[in-house]
Each structure stands twice: as structure tokens, then as C-alpha cells.
């Protein structure tokens, strides 16, 4: 038996414009830090060839991000629902939804796995191809901005009790905890 310990809806808590503004600041900060760091390490000139591949990568980041959310939830694949809706008639917004409560550990892993996998690959690629590091640092910064909402949810979930379960609903996430049995069953 589970009861709701807390409901979380980061989008309502912070609002669209604040999240967008924080995400934009995060993107600029990450790009500035990474680009300057790589320029200090490598003195190789930058090339602007393969811009088409960069553009394709830019558009693939978001769908890949959603796919990597599902990897830690592979054991719960029958409970996962993918939906796509469009904003402004052309911007696809994808949602990954789990229909039943799942353990907090798996949910946190699902939240942070896109950041770890995609940014890890992009940063490794920037060291392999230093002449195109600017492309990879732009993609890394962009993806980090996409991950901001995941970070905000993960921060809230880290503070939840051990052994909690997470359930999604239309208003965000509910943190569910097991009901402790009382010593007096009739009360």
C-alpha cells in the first residue's frame, strides 16, 4: 500500500519563462566554459566544414535525449508510453510516461542518463576531433540546456525518502511511500 508523500510539478513551480531563461543561461555558461577550456588545451585551428552534419546532430539531440530516458526503464518497457505533440505547428514535443509507480532509483537514473550518455559522447568527440570541437561544445551546451528540467526533477527526488516510488500523472510526478503497518491493526 502506497500513499502520496509529495507531488512535484517543476513547470508549474518555476514557470515556462523562468525555466527557459535558466536554460538559456546554462547553455551560454556551459558553452563558454567548454569552448575556452578546449581552446586552452588545443591550439588546432577550427574548421567549418561538415556544417550539415552539425545541423543534423542539432535536430537529433532531442529525440535521442528522449530515447536515452527509456534505457534505464527497460525492465518496465510494458509500462512506458511515448507521445508526441506539436507546438507552433512544427516543433515536436515528445513525452515519455510511465503508467505505474516505479522505484525512485530507476526514475532518477532515467532522468540523468541522457545527460551522462549524450554529453559524454559529445565531449569525447570534441577531444578526438579538436578542429571541430566548437560544433561538439555547441551541441553539448544545447543538450545541457534541454536537461535542466530533468535536473530540477532529480534534485527534488534526491530529497525524497528511501524506498519511495515515483508515479507520473497529468500534473507532474507523485512521490509515493509505503504505508507503515501500525501495531494495532484495528486503528
UniProtKB/TrEMBL annotation:
Top-rank lineage group of the source organism: Bacteria
Transmembrane keyword on record: yes
Name of a matching Pfam family: DUF3267
InterPro entries, A to Z: DUF3267
Regions crossing the membrane: 15-38, 50-68, 105-126, 132-153
Keywords of the record: Membrane, Transmembrane, Transmembrane helix
Signal peptide: none
Name of the protein this chain belongs to: DUF3267 domain-containing protein
Organism: Jeotgalibacillus malaysiensis
Lineage of the organism: Bacteria, Bacillati, Bacillota, Bacilli, Bacillales
